[in-house]
Amino acid sequence: MEDVKRQHSIRVLGAFGTKAKGFGTTSFMLNPTTTVDAGNLLDALEKESIEVENIWLTHSHLDHIVDIAYILDNYFSQRTKTLNIMGLPETIKAVKENFLNDTVWPDFSTIKLYGKDAMVVKYIEIEANKSYQISENETIRPFLTDHTVASCGYVYTIDNASVMITADTYSLDNVKNILETNPDIKSVIIECSFSNNMKTLALESKHLTSELLFAQLNSFKRDDFSLYINHIKPTYRQKIVEEIEAFRGKWKPIILKDEDFVYFR
Ligand SMILES: [Zn+2]
Ligand SMILES: [Zn+2]
């Protein structure tokens, strides 16, 4: 049983906080039909992106939604199933009104699948702190994070082990509460967008630096989880990585890149 559990993983399709040549933005593949965010679906999956049926959005920023536009456009005639887009009500509203709005890109929720009656896109509003069953043994539970727009992270559970994807955030207060009360969480993915000399920008844009990240982590009552770091801005990558090493203290963070895996242990 233990061996079976150890094989569970999340594929990181995009690990970075903005696009640059060779660097994809946030997206995690939970299973072949389900992702969290859509920053880098096309490059990572190419034709396999046809199989994606469920995208759980953390928030409405472009680096998390952009490839919804391109996977639908590229493989429009080959898609046979509706793409369900899940998000907080504010996130769904932003995508509908400002992105797939028939001005910036087609409103695919009013366009039928090629040769079928169902629509290409269906929007589903979700509630924080509610568990959603996504297969027989998988659940996903959104929780609110601290960003410049409405934003949520997700606790993704397979059987009895969970990975916490925290998404863009400044404060880790909610993350700390959930983590300290849920021992099933074995791994946590937290962002570190900026270098420490960009602390003011981090506060204004509600992101973390390594100094801010580890100062908060050091107040956590738990340290028995694997720590993964994502959403680094590629331009400052080397400096941020050096600073993570300088500030990590007792923590042994794994810095994610595209095509890495996150494990449930
Ligand atoms: Zn972002
Ligand atoms: Zn953001």
Descriptors:
single chain, 265 residues, alpha/beta, Metallo-beta-lactamase, Chain A, seven-stranded mixed sheet, 8 helices, 14 strands, binds zinc ion
Give the secondary structure arrangement, pairings included.
Blueprint: H1 2-6, E1 9-14, E2 27-31, E3 34-36, H2 41-45, E4 54-56, H3 62-74, E5 83-87, H4 89-98, E6 121-125, E7 132-135, E8 138-144, E9 152-158, E10 161-165, H5 173-181, E11 185-191, H6 199-205, H7 210-217, E12 226-230, H8 237-247, E13 254-255, E14 261-263
Parallel strand pairs: 3-4, 4-5, 5-6, 10-11, 11-12, 12-13
Antiparallel strand pairs: 1-2, 1-14, 2-3, 7-8, 8-9, 9-10
The structure holds zinc ion (2 copies).
Gist of the model:
The protein is α/β, with parallel strands linked by helices. 26% of the residues lie in helices and 25% in strands.
Described by the principal axes of the CA atoms, the overall outline is globular
What is the H/E order? HEEEHEHEHEEEEEHEHHEHEE
The CATH first-level class comes to Alpha Beta
Number of domains: 1
